[in-house]
Design goal:
There is one protein chain. This protein has 14 helices and no strands. By secondary structure, it is mainly α. Helices cover 66% and strands 0% of the residues. Helix 3 packs antiparallel against helix 5 and helix 5 packs antiparallel against helix 6. It has one domain: Orthogonal Bundle (Farnesyl Diphosphate Synthase), CATH 1.10.600.
């Protein structure tokens, strides 16, 4: 018997796990949890290095692991709640998901979401106050995205509503584990991520275009068409990274962060793949959507690497111009 590796494959009972168990896993959408887990880890470590707090936190790796897993539970809760509230649309565009297939009931998905939200919030406040506040804010935005007033259905506002928690709040929450979340570096890095997501989130609506239209959700894709939507999104994909030299020139951002400008390139690639609209055979969405997550992950890796080498003085040749 073949093993079910992706959500699009049929559900099968195995000797170890029933189909419902795999359905619960698919509710959380594991692929979309990879980026938040590693992004948060890297941002937390960058905060630790930037503020030189190794002596204050001798068990820093334990704290990073616990805080990163907390954000994973938070994202998993959001994914489960989104599927529980999007059943009608998923029956049209994503019938392979566990609820449309009848593997998991809608009420079960909502219960899992609420339990994960509760666990994430209770765990967050034990790490520190600011981390708990940002986790609560992320929870507030993601819940109201799926439930009334259901910001998901509102044109333009829907992309902003998901970009703020996934971009700005996620970075500030991660940084707050060890440092002041209102330092200039995390505010800029989080804002860049937020603006990027305001454009990149268009990719998730491509395969859902007709389903969203039939269920009363207005998106850039089903309102303007794929080509116009891609061009509307393009400035958000490249502009935030293109502003890095500006911030460095006016000494707002550390000069060693200039290599982050290179992420203009994947921004253009996401735009190109949006126009192609090529759907992945294994993952849930189009290739542009996959590239969005990969870009975000490497953005965090790049930022952390530059913080480490920059603060150690190995990038002193990158002087302000």
């Amino acid at each position: 018997m073949s093993v079910k590796l992706t959500m699009k494959q049929p559900y099968q009972k195995t000797r170890l796990f029933p189909a419902k168990f795999r359905g619960y896993i698919d509710l959380l959408r594991p692929f979309t949890l990879i980026a938040p887990f590693f992004v948060s880890m890297f941002i937390m470590f960058a905060s630790l290095v930037y503020n030189n707090l190794f002596d204050k936190y001798p068990d820093w790796w334990i704290t990073i692991g616990q805080a990163s897993l907390t954000l994973v539970f938070l994202n998993g809760a959001s994914n489960a709640l989104n599927q529980a509230t999007d059943v009608d649309a998923d029956k049209i565009s994503k019938p392979y998901r566990p609820i449309p297939r009848g593997v998991v009931e809608r009420e079960e998905a909502q219960s899992i979401a609420y339990l994960f939200y509760l666990f994430a919030l209770l765990r967050a406040v034990t790490i520190n106050t600011w981390f708990g506040i940002f986790v609560f804010l992320i929870m507030l935005f993601t819940v109201t995205y799926s439930l009334p007033p259901r910001m998901k259905r509102l044109l333009f506002l829907n992309q902003t509503w998901i970009a703020i928690p996934r971009g700005l709040f996620a970075v500030l929450a991660s940084w707050s584990v060890f440092g002041d979340p209102f330092q200039v570096q995390p505010l800029l890095i989080g804002t860049i991520a937020m603006v990027f997501f305001m454009g990149a989130m268009t990719t998730k609506d491509i395969v859902d275009s007709e389903a969203d239209k039939k269920t009363g959700t207005r998106t850039l894709i089903n309102t303007f068409g794929i080509r116009k939507a891609a061009f509307i999104s393009l400035p958000f994909l490249i502009f935030p990274f293109a502003t890095v030299p500006f911030f460095i020139h006016y000494r707002i951002m550390s000069s060693y962060l200039i290599p982050l400008t290179i992420f203009v390139i994947p921004g253009f690639l996401i735009f190109y793949f949006m126009l192609k609209q090529q759907e992945s055979k294994t993952l849930e969405n189009v290739q542009a959507w996959t590239l969005m997550y990969v870009t975000y992950l490497f953005y965090a890796i790049g930022f952390t690497s530059l913080i480490i080498f920059g603060e150690l003085g190995y990038l002193s040749f990158l002087q302000p111009f």
